[in-house]
């Protein structure tokens, strides 16, 4: 240490003493803070936040996705003290994902980072959330709609094509049931027998299987109950209605129904398994027979008004039961002769 540096440190020590601060104690405290800061990296805080999510019972898919987001950020900021990461550093890390054209992933990555920084703030390890300053900095993703055949005549052709499917029997029945119940593909392929009350004609899907994490009940038409009887007769030993090809301990893969549609000659730009929901939503609303809320409840869409959502949770059940039977009858009409229902624009 040079004489000039030594004098500067002496003057700094005198200044601290004049302010009632022990220079030796201040040095020890600075070392402790630096050590803690270096140990409290973004990755460590993110791991702790994900562990908290697990204790709170978050869905396994949500936990898995959070770990994936953490890994995407790990190389750039994972080693950095969470309190020292700047908005520019975070933006640079996220833009590596954005430049690959994954705009929605980039938006969700910013959102995940923001939750980690907020957790760091409430646990006294950071003072600012750099993710908040990046709002509007990323390219907004374009909404992509799932391909669906919305013309009744053409949809009738699809239903007739499904009747001729020659693949695995469970896949055929899944294709037949999908347009009747119009749940999300993942909810259908993960269906288990204990969720069904065939005598009461209702399928109760637990919240952990639903996108919005809320239980959902599906009224079953007589046509669906009959299809389920056919499925039961196949005598698959397992809990899943639609087991995987090589084992009954897992459900069919997420690509099975879409692959079956491709086998029937329908490309990804024409029809998808998710498209059955769009068909039901469109044609039920166009019929004018059913209350929009009954249709939305059947689609398990979340009401943005939480108070209204709580009030309407059990509403429209009787109407939904009638609607599901009418819809199955209408599907049979389309399948058998492509008869077109003429909207009357009134409600039952």
TrEMBL record:
Instruction: Check the record and name the Gene3D superfamilies matching this protein.
Output: 1.10.150.130, Integrase, DNA-binding domain (3.30.160.390), Intergrase catalytic core (1.10.443.10)
Q: What is the annotated signal peptide range for this record? A: none
- Pfam families for the chain: Arm-DNA-bind_3, Phage_int_M, Phage_integrase
Q: Which keywords, in A-to-Z order, does the entry hold?
A: DNA integration, DNA recombination, DNA-binding
Origin superkingdom:
Bacteria
Where's the Core-binding (CB) domain?
A: 40-121
The keyword DNA-binding is assigned to this record = yes
Tyr recombinase domain: from which residue to which, for each copy? Answer: 145-328
Similarity section:
Belongs to the 'phage' integrase family.
The name this protein carries in UniProt is Tyrosine-type recombinase/integrase
Origin organism is Aurantiacibacter flavus
Its organism's taxonomic lineage begins at: Bacteria, Pseudomonadati, Pseudomonadota, Alphaproteobacteria, Sphingomonadales
